[in-house]
Design brief:
Layout: E1 5-11, H1 14-30, E2 34-40, H2 42-46, E3 50-54, H3 63-68, H4 70-87, E4 91-95, H5 98-107, E5 114-118, H6 129-137, E6 140-143, H7 149-153, E7 159-161, E8 189-194, H8 199-219, E9 223-228, H9 234-241, E10 248-251, H10 257-263, E11 266-270, H11 274-280, E12 285-289, H12 293-302, H13 310-315, E13 322-324, H14 330-341, H15 344-360, H16 367-377
Parallel strand pairs: 1-2, 1-4, 2-3, 4-5, 5-6, 6-7, 8-9, 8-11, 9-10, 11-12, 12-13
Helix pairs in contact: 1-16, 8-14
């Protein structure tokens, strides 16, 4: 194996940055001389990544949103390709964000280096042809969920199920992070409102969440709402609460999420990584999914599965309730929440299934360690 390893690594979203930070940490343990260049957020930068651009430039959601930003995406692709050519990496690692990352991996087939992608695109839901295409230009695919491996292995792509890092996160059981005092109050009903980590999601969903919260407050006066958001969106969330007369607590501390997710009675959330975090915290949830109309129309035509929640796919049954598009309104959300909050059996059924799902997404060792070892083995 070469003494100095150059790794170009890219994550395009907050969840990818989390994975990337943990992966860089383990790669540095496996090999002393590793140099990292790429695109990432605070977690990856804290681990020593030199990021060529701000990660937010790659955070694009939905089909039509991507179409509107094609010139910007093409410009970023060109810039990244140029930096990779200059850096001459031994390995190119891309994390999630398949629209950008897999396009880049495919584009750079002519460069002599190993190619790894971490987090499988959802070929089980749509664009199944991607599995065959990926086998032509990737050396290794690292997947988070056990059911994903078969879709890529059958196309001859070396695929390793590493497990999901959230399933190994012990901070939900033990931590010394700040614990908001009201979380220990057994006399109030505690509801988490989690509208997502993108500005577009927050603008679409949070006004609906607030109207639902008002309905819940009329039904139960001893109720408090908890929001975990990114620093850049905290003021917007606080503004949206103004004049609502709701009892609420908003934090932008990612450390506080562990105690909030664990101690609330129920969570209303956007589809995404947060569903995994709530599952690990053993908190019942309702997942909502709202895209712009054109994106939704295209998704409806192309998607092969009837759930947007990955844990439902792991369980092979829709145990976590979901609302889509026009269904995402205060009345519908209120009815689902009220149904759960007044039916302990319904909550217990969801939680017992969530426990099974969390066990299914664990492997023999920590995903970041397993991923780092598999990546370094490519150079042997």
């Amino acid at each position: 194996m070469k003494k100095n390893i150059r790794i170009f690594i890219i994550a395009g979203e907050k969840s990818g940055d989390e994975l990337g930070g943990a992966l860089i940490h383990e790669l540095k343990k496996v090999s002393n001389n590793v140099e990292f260049l790429g695109i990432g957020g605070n977690k990856m930068i804290d681990q020593g990544l030199n990021s060529i651009i701000n990660i937010k430039l790659l955070s694009i959601m939905g089909i039509t949103e991507v179409l509107l930003k094609i010139p910007k995406v093409l410009k970023l692709l060109k810039l990244t390709e140029k930096e990779i050519l200059k850096f001459k990496p031994d390995i190119l690692i891309t994390i999630d964000s398949p629209g950008f990352n897999l396009r880049l991996q495919n584009k750079l087939q002519y460069i002599e280096m190993k190619r790894v992608h971490y987090v499988a695109p959802s070929v089980w839901a749509w664009k199944s042809y991607r599995a065959k295409k990926m086998s032509k230009y990737l050396d290794l695919l690292l997947v988070l969920f056990p059911f994903e491996k078969k879709f890529f292995s059958k196309e001859g792509l070396s695929t390793v199920f590493v497990g999901h890092p959230i399933a190994y996160d012990n901070h939900y059981v033990n931590n010394e992070f700040y614990n908001e005092k009201s979380l220990n109050n057994k006399n109030i009903l505690k509801i988490a409102l989690l509208p997502g980590s993108r500005l577009s999601e927050i603008k679409k969903l949070f006004p609906i969440f607030i109207n639902t919260a008002k309905m819940l407050s009329k039904r139960n006066r001893a109720i408090k709402f908890y929001v975990v958001t990114l620093k850049e969106y905290k003021n917007l969330i606080l503004e949206m609460f103004q004049g609502s007369e709701l009892n609420y607590y908003v934090t932008d501390s990612m450390e506080e999420k562990y105690n909030i997710y664990t101690k609330v009675d129920f969570a209303l959330c956007a589809s995404g990584t947060v569903t995994m975090e709530l599952a690990k915290a053993l908190t019942p949830m309702l997942v909502v999914y709202k895209l712009n109309y054109l994106t939704w129309f295209i998704v409806k035509l192309m998607v092969k599965v009837k759930t947007a929640t990955i844990l439902n796919l792991v369980l092979e049954k829709n145990i976590i309730p979901e609302l889509f598009q026009q269904e995402v309104n205060p009345n519908n959300i209120f009815n689902v929440l009220n149904n759960y909050l007044s039916n302990k059996e319904l909550i217990n059924e969801q939680l017992s299934n969530i426990k099974i799902a969390i066990n299914k997404i664990q492997n023999n060792e920590n995903p970041s360690i397993m991923s780092a070892n598999n990546i370094i083995n490519l150079l042997k």
